[in-house]
Amino acid sequence: MTWGRSWLKMETNKGRYVQQIFSSIAKRYDFLNSLLSLSLDRSWREFAVRLSASSKDSRVLDVCTGTGELALAYAEEIGQHANILSTDFCFNMLAVGQEKFKNRNLSFFIPIEADTLKLPFRDGAFDIVSVGFGIRNVSHLRKGLSEMVRVAAPGGRVVVLEFTQPVLPVVKQVYYFYFKKILPLIGNLISKNRDDAYGYLPSSVMEFPDCYQLLAIMEECGLVNVNYYLRTFGIVAVHVGNKE
Ligand SMILES: C[S@@+](CC[C@H](N)C(=O)[O-])C[C@H]1O[C@@H](n2cnc3c(N)ncnc32)[C@H](O)[C@@H]1O
Q: Distance from the CA of 153 to the center of ligand 1, in angstroms?
């Protein structure tokens, strides 16, 4: 395992480590996301929302919502009256999100503190269940995905936006250099994080299943017609599947 340095000390509890990491970087999360992705993160979320094929009547659940950036992308696509619930187990991330939405006079962010491994919703409650850059952080990938599938309605969609490992050799080299060397340096410096939060990011991506593996896992978790779509030289993938 090559998790961030602190993770090595807490191998038995990834969930707690992840919660701690996001609690400590919550205030700078949006700024750093935009800086470190060269503002591409917004377009990745917009792309994921388009693939969700959501409409104003869709009941949407965004898990691991953090500061609600994906909820924001939904509302921009389908309007202010979008029917979205947003869950995360990190209070500080939700609080930053709530403040951001309040300052912009936006009312559609409904944050709920909840673990993706145990969602407090009945089976089939949502037409769309999405996750943006979150499922990689969930301690049991299959369990998290299965919970997302459980709360999706029959015929509903599960959308997973996540970093992935590029296959083109030149892209791979440049990306890995940036991702492993530059990004942790800038991220940890600006977020003033001592737990190597931005060292955890590349490590978690390297450990995460590749596009083909994730597709197969999503099928194992009960989805059909699973496809994936790559963005930005294959560094980001959106997987979409249907519940039967
Ligand atoms: C990288 S952030 C992504 C935030 C947001 N979705 C976005 O697109 O920017 C990952 C989020 O996943 C949350 N998370 C990780 N594991 C979780 C779990 N088991 N249950 C709920 N939230 C979780 C973290 O607290 C964090 O806010």
A: 22
Tell how strand 223-231 and strand 152-163 pair up. unpaired
DSSP 57: T
What distance in Å separates the CA atoms of residue 191 and residue 31, rounded to the nearest whole number? 10
- Pocket residues: Cβ below 6 A from ligand 1: 15, 18-19, 22, 64-66, 69-70, 88-90, 93, 115-117, 132-134, 137-138
Rounded to 10 deg, the angle between the 40-52 and 69-78 helix axes is 60
The pTM assigned to this predicted structure is 0.92
Atom number of ligand 1 nearest to Cα 66: 27
Pocket-testing residue among 14, 19, 137, ligand 1, by greatest number of atoms within 8 A of Cβ: 137
Task: Delineate the domains of the chain, giving CATH numbers in brackets.
Answer: 5-243 (3.40.50.150)
For 78-124, what is each residue's pLDDT tens digit? Answer: 987 889 999 999 999 999 999 999 998 888 899 999 999 999 999 99
Q: What is the pLDDT of residues 28-76, one digit of tens each?
A: 999 989 988 889 999 999 999 999 999 999 999 999 999 999 999 999 9
Distance (angstroms) between ligand 1 centre and the Cα of 16 equals: 12
